[in-house]
Amino acid sequence: MTRLRGFLRDNGLTLVFGAGFLLSLAGQAVAGHADLDNQLVAEGLAPLGFGGYLLSSDFAVDVTENWQSEYLQFFLYIFGTVWLLQRGSPESKQLHEAGPESDEEQKAGRHATPGSPRWASAGGLRQSWYARSLGTLMCVLFLLSWLTQSVTGVAAHNEQHLRELQAPISWAQYVGSADFWSRTLQNWQSELLAVGSMAIFSVYLRQRGSPESKPVGSPHGATGVEG
To answer: Domain coordinates of the chain in residue numbers?
Structure first.
C-alpha cells in the first residue's frame, strides 16, 4: 500500500491528465455518435452503431485534428523557447540564456554527472539526437497526426459527398481544400493564442504553488523564475 501511494504521488500529474483524457475521449465518442446519428436520420439514412462509429472516419478525423494542433503547439513552444524570450515570464529563459547553451550549462558530454542519462555523456550523433529528442518527438507526432487527420478527413468528406450523390475527391484535392484548412487553422490559431497569452499573462499574474507561475512576491520583470 505504501508503494502504491508513493507511485500515485510521484506520477499524479500524468495519471490525472491521462484519466481526464480517456474520460473526455469517451464523452466525445458518445456525443459524436449521437450527433452523427441525428444527421443520418435527418437525411433519411439508417443510424450507425456505436462500434461502427468508433471505427469510422468521422470519429477519427475529429480526434486527430485536435491532436495535431496540440503537438504542433508543443513542438513550436519547445523549439521556440530555445531562442525566443519574454521578459518577466516564467515560460521564458533568462534574457542572457538565449540559444542551446554550453555543455557545461546543460551537464552534457564531459560535464555529465553520475546521475545523468547515459546518452547525455555520449559523443557524436547519439548525444546530438538525445539533446533534441523531446522536440523531435513532438514534431514527429504532429506530422503523423496531421497525416492521419488528412487521410481520415478525406474519407469523411467523401462519405458526405456520396450521401449527397456527389463525386468523391482525391487526397491531394482535399489537402488543398477549404474544408481541410478551415478545420486545421481554427485549431492552430487557438493553440498559438493560448501559448502567447500564457507567456504574457504570467508576467503580471500569479498562481501560488504552481511551477508555471513565478513566486507571488517576485517582481514583474523577473524572468525564468518558477514558483
So the answer is: 1-55, 56-99+134-227
